[in-house]
Amino acid sequence: MVDIRPFASADWPEVWAILEPVFRAGDTYSFPADIDEAEAYRVWIELPVATFVAVDPAGCVLGTYYLKANQAGPGAHVCNCGYVTGDRARGRGVASALCEHSQRQAVEHGFRAMQYNMVVSTNAGAVRLWQRHGFEIVGTLPGAFRHPGQGFVDAYVMYKTLA
Amino acid sequence: MVDIRPFASADWPEVWAILEPVFRAGDTYSFPADIDEAEAYRVWIELPVATFVAVDPAGCVLGTYYLKANQAGPGAHVCNCGYVTGDRARGRGVASALCEHSQRQAVEHGFRAMQYNMVVSTNAGAVRLWQRHGFEIVGTLPGAFRHPGQGFVDAYVMYKTLA
Question: A120-141, pLDDT tens digit by residue?
Fold first, then answer.
């Protein structure tokens, strides 16, 4: 029972409460671990084309994703998304629901493909999840991610043609 | 006889004269073909960590490149460069000189690897040139570049470990 709807300003405290520990951990996303709230708002809310939230029946935010063009000009038909789910979302299929929703949104926005630029190889659950949703590993970046516990680890470029 | 030195403000008219036709052509870089001069200045000069120019003995600008981190935080040890040479540079090894220079600069700035995110597959000369300088195609992005003459063509992710 998860509803996915556009982000509204009033959601920000809940969204930030979900994003902050993930950014601070520094083991999945290439945002600075010490990113401040204003910069997080800029990259997650302001820069993207659209941001969505998954909410439970009580209206609590379980997860969020952004959608944006991955490149400008001749590369602007390929989009990029970032997804984060909170602890309360575990085992409820929220990440899958966000991924499916984002692909539909991408097509509605006119994108023809979706690219993840840096899926950390040690984040095996995410890699499997994206593969299950039709994304392929199209490239491996050797040592491109500095993992806080494991040092320099590989990252994958994952890609799916949508239309 | 090519000298490579840091960009200085007075170089901008010459640099823009080299960049503009390349951006307008829209067949090699994922900048908007209609990018205006102020935005070009922002992406080529202001956003990067550093920008350099290659000049001939008379001081005329033959080419330019920028150097920047490709990602933030845990990805910030991998840099990205963009290179453009002018018509007067043809056959003089300017692109090679810029590539070599950029690798040394990258190491000096503490980067451990260099990544090109979108080398257009139809730009065969560039692909060969980067390969000759030790870059490998680590990924292929299907149809990720909308070529003005050839439609949706593949783009390569190229990568070189520097240190």
Answer: 999 999 999 999 999 999 999 9
Which residues of chain B make contact with A142, given a CB cutoff of 8 A? 113, 138, 159, 161
Whether the CA torsion A161, A158, B133, B71 is positive or negative: it is positive
CB contact under 8 A, A30 and B71: yes
Q: Measure CB to CB from residue A144 to each of B35, B75, B148 and give the nearest one.
A: B75
pTM for this predicted structure: 0.96
Per-residue pLDDT of A17-75, as tens digits, reads: 999 999 999 999 999 999 999 999 999 999 999 999 999 999 999 999 999 999 999 99
Task: Quote the domain boundaries for residue B12.
Answer: 3-161
Any idea what the CATH number is for the domain that residue B56 is in?
3.40.630.30
- Distances in Å between the Cα of A145 and the Cα atoms of A108, A117, A119, A122 are 32, 11, 9, 10
pLDDT mean over B108-121: 98
Terminal-residue alpha carbon distance, chain A: 29
Indicate the number of domains in chain A. 1
Q: State how far residue B48 is from chain A, nearest Cα, in angstroms.
A: 16
Question: Cα B152 vs. chain centroid, distance in angstroms?
Answer: 21
